[in-house]
Amino acid sequence: MARLAAISCLELQRRRIPFKGAIVHQDFESGITKKDRNRITSANDKQFTSLDDFRENGPQFFERERAA
Fold first, then answer.
1. Which residues have C-beta within 8 Å of that of residue 60, sequence separation ≥ 6?
2. What's the domain count of the chain?
3. Residue 1: helix, strand or coil by DSSP?
4. What is the pTM of this model?
5. Distance, CA of 19 to CA of 27 (rounded, Å)
6. DSSP calls for 12-56
7. Contact residues for 44 (Cβ-Cβ < 8 A; gap 6+)
8. Each residue's pLDDT tens digit in the chain (68 positions)?
9. Buried b or exposed e, range 26-64, using 16+ CB within 10 angstroms
10. C-alpha span between 48 and 55 (Å, rounded)
């Protein structure tokens, strides 16, 4: 799944389609391979390392994005 998300974001970048990429990981450390973790990190603007992290910090992140 991470590889597909990274490919999708990279394709949007290649086509110069404006977007902001935000990823919520189930388990950042052991949920995906290091290679896929590097790909998705390079392709996205924001990552949340867990669902708990997203619940705690996601609303503030999206609020800041709306204000920008």
1. none
2. 1
3. coil
4. 0.79
5. 24
6. HHHTT-----EEE-S-TTTSS-HHHHHHHHHH-SEEESSHHHHHH
7. 5, 6, 9, 21, 22, 23
8. 788 989 999 999 999 999 999 999 888 887 788 898 899 999 999 999 999 999 999 999 999 999 98
9. eebeeebeeebbebbeebbebbbbeeeebeeeeeeeeee
10. 9
Range of the domain at 9: 2-67
Six token digits for residue 41: 């990190």
Q: Which two tokens stand for residue 58?
A: 């996601």
Q: Are 58 and 48 in contact (CB under 8 A)?
A: yes
